[in-house]
Amino acid sequence: MAVIGELIRKAIDVYGFITSDPDPAQAQREVLQNLLTKAKLTAFGKKHNFSEILASADPVKAFQQVVPVHDYDKLYNDWWHYLLEGHQNVTWPGGQQYFALSSGTTSNSKSIPVTDDMLDAIRKSGLQQVASLKNFDLPADFFEKQILMLGSSVSLIQKDDHEEGEISGISAANLPTWFRSFYKPGVEIAAIKDWDEKVRRIAEEAPSWDIGSLSGIPSWIEMMLKEVIAHNKLNTIHDIWPNLQVYTTGGVAFEPYRKSFEKLLARPLTYIDTYLTSEGYLATQKRPDTSSMALILDNGIFFEFVPFTDENMDEDGRVKQDAKVLTLEEAEENQDYVLLISTVSGTWRYMIGDTVMLTDKQRSEIKITGRTKHFLNVVGEQLSVYQMNQAMQKMQKQFDIEIQEFVVSAIRKDGEYINKWMIGADKQVDGQPFAASLDSELCETNKNYKVARSKSLKGVEAEVIPVERFYRWSEEYKKLGGQTKIPRVMKEDDFLEFEQYVKSLS
């Protein structure tokens, strides 16, 4: 009998009973009050009169009236650059031991402060995720198995008074001692910076591990599984890890990868979606009968919602300072919102770059629908990444292919705008009928796109190419593995360079 696993499962049940879901509005008010109280004597808190905000009749409204909305560039240029120069008490008390590096998909390079309070919050959010496993009807012995977390290198970069790395590497370098016996690939392999070398070592060590759970971005997890299978001459990954039962995904939507991913398995896994960013652990899926994630409301992050409409956004995809901004109480279901966060890392009314939709307000559950700058609206298409992903699932079924990556751009052809798609798939398909079907599907599901097609958007083209070319581009121009994501929407010049590169590989 799996005695230890049974004890862990009972402990999770008790923890879940003690820590029931908080009242959303009250929890968020308390989080904001705690943020303002702790940061009131920082340079940012003094500049924006946090003490007066706390003394006001309605601190939430006062906070929204006084503190401006920030994107990364504004917060860095106005405040965070002082942190990198060694100053303290800038946007959060004390200094920062870590900075999370992010190539991102909306900015070329970011250095985001990661405070001790944020690391503590990430650990607590991780415990909430573990506690929610009681809802997924997993056997007791699952809780004795190892967890393979495929992230960035834990070998961080030393810079003067701080260390730098991707958030997954920083988090893995600060795992609690009790968890390290469960953690794979282990610190030694996790410290390897070269992606190919790291995956090779994982494939070599795989037979000695008893993996029950995987965690990481879908594209890189899939590439790793393929290497383990090939190196060990397996049919499926369950031949070597028979107790694998759970995959915790995040970073991008999993559905486009499901078909190719499940070919590597002997049986389906339990899929759990999470929302861990360089700025914090925002949400996690807490129940099996939905793919939505519950916002983590009582752990150092205050959420705000900006209706994703033309009047609230400028031409660069930033929230306007006079935009209408809602609290969680005020937001409505099934609407696209730009997400703002204020956190224990000293981000204030910060535009994280994602758009989300509340799918269940009572449970505070959301879906990520896209990126503010990965939203195609050059000539009125108003296409979100969520809609693109939905369409790609239809194309997979219609053309019997596996679409793992794609990118689209509005480009000029013969003086008129067209949408050009590059599709990364497992086999070749004629681009002309693919483009026609994709165009028809988007017209059917998006009325704004349909209007654009009758006016300013004069055509749709598509090329279906081997998905490996996307990854080769990522390796050369970004990097492989870690938190690196393939952009879904590119500006015209970037797209033409990308197109030229992938064609050079043919």
CATH homology group of the largest domain: ANL, N-terminal domain
Give the class-level CATH name of the largest domain: Alpha Beta
Count every helix, treating DSSP H or I runs of 4 or more residues as helices.
17
Structural class: alpha/beta
Q: Report the sheet-strand fraction.
A: 15-25%
The number of domains is 2
Main sheet summary = 11 strands, mixed
Silhouette: globular
Give the total of beta strands: 18
Helix content: 25-40%
Average of pLDDT: 87
Which fold does the CATH topology of the largest domain refer to? Answer: Rossmann fold
| CATH level-two architecture of the largest domain | 3-Layer(aba) Sandwich
Pfam family, one: GH3_M
GO molecular function, one term: acid-amino acid ligase activity
Organism: Spirosoma taeanense
Domain GH3 C-terminal: 387-492
Description:
- The longest helix is centred in the N-terminal third of the chain and has 17 residues, at 116-132.
- With 506 residues, this protein is α/β, with parallel strands linked by helices.
- It has 17 helices and 18 strands.
- Strand 10 (280-284) and strand 11 (293-295) form a beta hairpin.
- The chain starts with a helix and ends with a helix.
- The protein has an 11-stranded mixed beta sheet.
- Residues 1-12 and 14-18 have low confidence and may be disordered.
- It has 2 domains: 1-373, Rossmann fold (3-Layer(aba) Sandwich); 385-504, 2-Layer Sandwich (GMP Synthetase, Chain A, domain 3).
